[in-house]
């Protein structure tokens, strides 16, 4: 019964998320699970065009308790400088909208 409830909640949340962000011109949406290796701070890279919006859901598979958290680093893809930090829980979502010129703060 718990699995069926989880399935319906997940399905309804996906429909709601698609509806909420579907009105934007440039939207990239994804969901993934990953294993965060010890000492590794970054696991995903994406180059975004100006005006793009990136939204993704994630789950850290090797987190021991719901209180565990990670730091997400959003980087300038050209200079590699950190443009934003986000402390995130074990399950959740991150959202970034690019609004800078093409050679400045674009990407993660």
Oligomer: single chain
Shape: globular
The share of residues in helices is 10-25%
Give the strand content: 35-45%
Category from helices, strands and their pairing: alpha+beta
Major sheet summary line:
3 strands, mixed
Q: Widest sheet: strand order?
A: 1-2-5
* Rg estimate, integer Å: 15 Å
How would you sum up this structure, described in words?
It is built from 1 helix and 5 strands; from the N terminus they run αβββββ. The model is unreliable at 6-24 and 101-108 (pLDDT under 50). The termini are far apart. The longest helix has 20 residues, at 2-21. It is an alpha+beta fold. It has one domain (25-108). The chain has one helix spanning 2-21, and strands at 27-34, 53-60, 69-75, 82-89, 91-97. Helices cover 19% and strands 35% of the residues. The strands form 2 sheets. It has a 3-stranded mixed β-sheet with strand order 1-2-5, with no helix packed on it. Strands 3-4 form a two-stranded antiparallel sheet.
Explain briefly what this protein structure is.
The protein is built from one helix and five strands. It is α+β, with helices and mostly antiparallel strands and 108 residues long.
